[in-house]
Specification:
This is DUF2254 domain-containing protein. By secondary structure, this protein is α+β, with helices and mostly antiparallel strands. The chain contains 16 helices and eight strands. The protein has a five-stranded mixed beta sheet with strand order 1-5-3-8-7, with helices on one face. A hairpin with a 5-residue loop joins strand 7 and strand 8. It is flat.
Length: 488
């Protein structure tokens, strides 16, 4: 398609290389903007969730507060506790209490260092063996957060209680906070159990099956959050408007990745200025500061006055958040990117693990089949009078399929097992899709895959198997054949 509007022709590209066309996707993919979509707050929450420090920091703060409050409670009630209770509390003197608390504090900092070391080694292994983009999966692990919080909280609590223990040699009345020392002992036992569980969790976490499952689950959650089910009736006019030649281009404020779009802020800005706003990049796209990321134009024939124009562009730029890395907050293609990275990494000469690549492609196939049933067209936001105010770019099935297939096809071209799994991926997707454009995307990828197969030096059996699978893909994509599951 030849673009005839030079003012907006620079608005091209996305997370997956492609040329933006107007209208940017099939009509009938609109919704009324009533779904619960995360904005910049959701992106900030996702960023905090993938950091190692928030939960341990909260744990230390609570431990210090408890270490200050509980000894004061001990001063009031220790002398009046019944014998049936005190027999289960710490019964040693001040010297013994100090020794216990010092031992707990010293051991906890050692165990915490060991836990941090194991976590760092796991992160390094995941980055080198699988993909650097899987690190967020590890750093967002709540069990790791809780383990570090417990260890550091026990250390901080023991030190805080230690300062309240007094002996007669100090020139004061001897004081041993029995409940506080007993709780420190119980926390120490809990850390021992947690350390064993942490090692078992780490051994499970580092397995490729676990990582791929978690990536798949995260991607499905993002799709549930960001995409409506295809076939839901759209609200109002569903055809995206064409931007005029004199549309105002809004440049990216800084370079990075488009982390998210505050849909509510964009809608309010468009309504207040009586304008239409189009964001041409979807979350996960690479942005360069100063290059166009959005366009806006007045809905009425009259243009903007200078004040309205300046305010609108500023509000649009503010509603588009840019980060230094891709996240799963609004990026529906990020899960496929991670799965493809694992497959490509496994096919590298240094790893040479086609079995892992085939496993990753299985998850990609399942995820693509899920996404094929979603509304992947442009998202349209309407005002109260059912007029289109905001058009948001989103990847379509063609882009997502190319993301999942192209690189594994290139780097696994010499492995029949990888090409066989790619053929099966297309066949499984062919059974799922029902729209002509989606079926065309499957058959286009089949043609490229057949070209790759023809260029390889395979034996007759391998070629026959791949050829038969190719025929099955065509039959599945056209809906003319349904396989017998027991024969597959």
């Amino acid at each position: 398609m030849v673009h005839t509007q030079p003012t907006v022709a620079v608005l091209r590209g996305g997370a997956v290389p492609d040329v933006m066309e107007w209208p940017p996707g099939p009509p009938g993919s609109a919704d009324g903007g009533t779904m619960n979509r995360p904005g910049t707050v959701g992106a900030a929450r996702d960023t905090l969730r993938t950091q190692l420090w928030p939960v341990p920091t909260i744990g230390v703060a609570l431990a210090v507060a408890l270490g200050v409050f509980l000894p004061r409670l001990d001063e009031r009630i220790d002398d009046v506790l019944p014998a049936s209770v005190t027999r289960y509390l710490f019964g040693g003197g001040a010297g013994a209490a100090r020794s216990v608390l010092e031992a707990i504090a010293g051991s906890q900092i050692t165990v915490t260092s060991l836990t941090f070391s194991l976590t760092i080694v796991t992160l390094q292994l995941a980055s080198s063996q699988f993909s650097p983009r899987l690190l967020r999966t590890f750093t967002s692990d709540r069990f790791v957060h809780g383990t570090l919080a417990l260890f550091l909280a026990t250390f901080a609590y023991s030190l805080t209680v230690l300062r309240t223990v007094r002996t007669a040699d100090d020139g004061q009345d001897a004081f041993v906070p029995q409940i506080s020392v007993t709780l420190a002992f119980l926390l120490a036992l809990a850390t021992v159990v947690t350390l064993v569980l942490f090692l078992a969790h780490l051994a499970s976490k580092i397995r490729v099956e676990t990582m791929l499952r978690e990536v798949h689950t995260s991607a499905s959650d993002t799709a549930d959050r960001m995409l409506s089910v295809d076939g839901e009736p759209p609200a109002g006019n569903s055809a995206p408007p064409d931007p005029p030649a004199d549309a105002i281009l809004v440049p990216a404020a800084r370079s990075g990745f488009l982390g998210g779009v505050d849909e509510e802020a964009l809608l309010h800005a468009a309504v207040d200025a009586d304008a239409v706003v189009l964001v041409d990049r979807h979350p996960g796209s690479s942005l360069i500061a100063g290059t166009p990321v959005a366009a806006c134009w007045p809905r009425a024939a009259a243009g903007f006055d200078p004040g309205t124009r300046s305010q609108l562009t500023e509000r649009v730029a503010t509603a588009i958040s840019t980060g230094y890395e891709r996240t799963a907050a609004q990026d529906v293609a990020y899960g496929l990117r991670q799965l493809t990275d694992v497959a490509v990494k496994a096919l590298s000469p240094g790893i040479n693990d086609p079995t892992t690549a085939v496993h990753a492609l299985g998850h990609s196939a399942a995820l693509l089949c899920e996404l094929a049933g979603r509304d992947l067209g442009p998202r349209l936001l309407h005002d109260d009078e059912d007029r289109i105010r905001v058009v948001l770019r989103r990847p379509d099935l063609t882009e997502l399929l190319d993301l999942a297939v192209s690189q594994p096809r290139r780097y696994g071209a010499a492995d029949p097992a990888v090409l066989t799994r790619l053929m099966m991926l297309l066949r499984e997707l062919g059974w799922t899709v029902d729209r002509p454009d989606q079926r065309r995307a499957v058959t286009d990828q089949l043609a490229r895959l057949r070209h790759t197969v023809d260029a390889q030096d395979f034996d007759a059996v391998e070629r026959t198997t791949l050829a038969e699978l190719g025929v099955q893909v065509e039959q599945a994509a056209t809906g003319k054949w349904m396989p017998n599951p027991t024969a597959v």
